[in-house]
């Protein structure tokens, strides 16, 4: 995908079943929604509502039991493992509740790492990403020398280093205080408004709803309220 030719994501009839102890559990029960390019979409709901599973499927980390996910007119649920891996490396960024920074690397090196693995140009892009999240002055600090909010901002910089079209954020402010959460939320809004990225965020934090273009409330694997 190319942000110069923004692509909508279309989710139709997505179901996801898991088996545990011989029993079948449906984490998703027929979810349909549209994600427009250059927007910030929030999936809201209690733990176990299905929002993380839905994000993982839209982000090509998991495959649905039923249904389709289209990037433009390309159904990513029909891709092979190698194609899905390429899609994630080129077009998708992930920010998780657990920032999982590499403890032996400083902030700059953590952001640089995925670009190094991909043999992509690094220096200027790493500096640009750290500037976008307001951490240029902290680039040589190790993770343990950074606050929780700063670590999350490094994780965001790392997620956008390869210039993805869409960024998925799973409870990115859950471990942060109110003020720091607001700062992180503004970064995601800026990614949409200034970088033309598409952001999908799963959260139960109602204070984040004001930054969203679209909000979907999930319950028992279904969207029960929102722009559907």
What report would you give on this structure?
- With 228 residues, the protein is an alpha/beta fold.
- It has helices at 51-58, 81-91, 107-117, 123-132, 148-160, 178-193, and strands spanning 9-20, 23-35, 40-44, 66-71, 74-75, 92-95, 166-170, 198-203, 214-219, 222-225.
- Helix content is 30%, strand content 28%.
- The strands form two sheets. A six-stranded mixed beta sheet has the order 6-7-8-3-9-10, sandwiched between helices.
- The relative contact order is 0.21.
Radius of gyration: 17 Å
Task: Return the string of H and E elements.
Answer: EEEHEEHEHHHEHEEE
The rough form would be described as globular
Number of helices: 6
Name the poorly predicted regions.
Answer: none
Give a quick precis of the structure.
The chain is α/β, with parallel strands linked by helices and 228 residues long. It is built from six helices and ten strands.
